[in-house]
Amino acid sequence: MAFDGDYAMLIGGERVRGSAALDVVNPATEQVIAQVPDCTREELDRAVAAARAAVPGWAATPIAERKAKLNALGDAVLARLDDFKRLVTSEQGKPHEEAAGEVMGAGYWLKGAAALDLPVTVNEDSDERYSETRHVPLGVVGAIAPWNFPMILAMFKVGPALLAGNTMVLKPSPFTPLSTLRFAELAAEILPPGVLNVVTGGDRLGPWMTSHPGFDKISFTGSTATGKRVMQSAAPTLKRVTLELGGNDAAIVMPDVDVEKVAEELFWAAFRNNGQICIATKRMYVHEDVYEPLRDALVAYARTVKVGDGSEQGTQIGPINNKPQYDRVLDLIQDAKDKGYQFLVGGEKADVPGYFIPVTIIDNPPEDARIVQEEQFGPVLPLLKFGDFDEVVKRANATDYGLGGSVWGEDEDKALELAQKIASGTVWVNETQHLSPMAAFGGMKQSGVGVEGGVEGLLEYTNAQTIVRRKKVLA
Ligand code: NAD
Q: Is the pTM higher than 0.85?
């Protein structure tokens, strides 16, 4: 497999170059770096048909063999870590080191998912009957991934969907299709034809998938607005959906925190991957006793951080991934300026090519500010002051989002007590963003429907089937 410019879709085990092409841009330079196929409706139909044809064979493959293939796929990704790393940086923008972390995570996620098992529940084993519930594949899964973590978020879906015996059609974001297409080349060498198909395309392709009668399930990761459209479009054929959507995570910093110890970690909770993480800290509530020292420590650290092209040595934060998101973050900054909020650092647009925005921290804006209420998904953090614990929990929960959140403090019991009051799918104490293929991850409220990860996530790729066998014929 060569990591050069020849990108093709994978349909029924064949490379399909397609009839039209989409440009892929390096966000650090705004240069077109590759073209990928723009899938037609007919090509999507072929991908769905290929996946459908592969269902009986794959579903009947012993689970031990499916696990072995997923392990092989994970190993194949890990063996090409360096090539994938460069590709992810060039299409997504993140620094090499973070890209390497993502690729490694992607490989291990496949292997981690392969370690899960499908449970069988014995409901009754009496003289009369034997009843058990097992979990059978749904059929064909349509997987739609976003641009912030193009590889690992696709693997969140590939691992459990295939382990459970489904086949798939996977669509990466049009902003970051390259690493997924290279992954498809590895899959073509390891999986039977049709088990995993990869299609790329523009704005028409997602809706074609979600409304296509050939899919049994849509597994979607992206924004809450799109998630609602996905659910609506999946309804007429009652496709199963898993929706992993947006968030507006609060970090709550307790008065007993050791400022020197946590400042750097809190900084990265908000700014890792340029803030483009669904579970990035998007609002930081700091107790008034430590507000000023933490504010100063965050600002001092922010001034040391190097923003630049992710392929350059020493870069810690890359560009925003794409122009629409860049414009959206700039709009939020402009709104904060118009309202007269205090900028502690940043706030100015960098006058260089590439979608660069400097690290920006805003000093205690009002609770109803757009930068507090909306998901910024960029390097702009509102720092908010609180005094009362009940009040801060109320503020943290006063949102339609409910994805993640964190509480930071030396007194772990106190921090845990507060953490349990946060209405979100995952809450961390004294850390954040730690996910595992063994643990369920998902959103409450409008941050999602269903979960990924863990046995709970695996079961979302199955139908529960109860088999009841009578042992005695009635007299
Ligand atoms: P997005 O909703 O714009 O796009 C996500 C994917 O959906 C892309 O592949 C896109 O092409 C496709 N799409 C767009 N319109 C569609 C439609 N009408 N029907 C079907 N598919 C469609 O999201 P994005 O901007 O790529 O990603 C950023 C968002 O994703 C943020 O809100 C972030 O919080 C969220 N996110 C959530 C998680 C999670 O696990 N909860 C993880 C990462 C990102």
A: yes
